[in-house]
Amino acid sequence: MAEAKAPTSQPAHSRPLSPHLQIYRLTWTMVMSGMHRATGGALYIGTLLLVIWLVALATGPRAFDRVQWFMGSWLGYLILFGYTWALLHHMMGGLRHFMWDFGKGFEPKERLMLAKGSLVASAALTLLVWVVGLSLS
């Protein structure tokens, strides 16, 4: 009668159980995934700015003038510009994921084009929003 072998805890070949950054090279889609998460987090901060602006508006002219002064400063413009880019970049990433939900854009060239395109589109749309916004003010 053959004796049963006890299971070994080590696999026959030594390799990581889960992929990690030492194996993968950094790709555009990896960077865009990280940026999508980062811009999502930044949108929380931007939403707090909107809440501060609305509370100041409801509080009265003095509080509103202070917030408007800060938002009209170079630092305020820089923060608002970054918020605009984060909003549009997150939206572009969401549209990319929406396409993937329909099973489109999974080929390597398509994924690269979508990743680069979302970055270019978010930058171009941010500039367009600011040029139009500043020309109307």
From TrEMBL:
UniProt KW keywords: Heme, Iron, Membrane, Metal-binding, Transmembrane, Transmembrane helix
One example of the protein's molecular function in GO is:
metal ion binding
**Oligomer and partners:** Part of an enzyme complex containing four subunits: a flavoprotein, an iron-sulfur protein, plus two membrane-anchoring proteins, SdhC and SdhD. The complex can form homotrimers.
**According to Swiss-Prot or TrEMBL, what is its membrane topology?**
Multi-pass membrane protein
One cellular component (GO) term of this entry: membrane
- Which note does the record give on the cofactor? The heme is bound between the two transmembrane subunits.
What is this protein's function?
Membrane-anchoring subunit of succinate dehydrogenase (SDH).
> What cofactor does its activity depend on?
heme
The membrane spanning regions, by residue number, are: 41-59, 71-92, 113-136
Q: Which residues are noted in the entry as heme-binding?
A: H90
Name a Pfam family for this protein: Sdh_cyt
Indicate what this protein is called per its UniProt record: Succinate dehydrogenase cytochrome b556 subunit
Q: Which Gene3D superfamilies match?
A: Fumarate reductase/succinate dehydrogenase, transmembrane subunit
Coiled-coil ranges per the record? none
Give compartment(s): Membrane
Q: Which family is annotated?
A: Belongs to the cytochrome b560 family.
- Keyword Transmembrane listed? The answer is yes
Annotated GO biological processes are: tricarboxylic acid cycle
* Primary residence: membrane
**The organism's place on the tree of life at top rank:** Bacteria
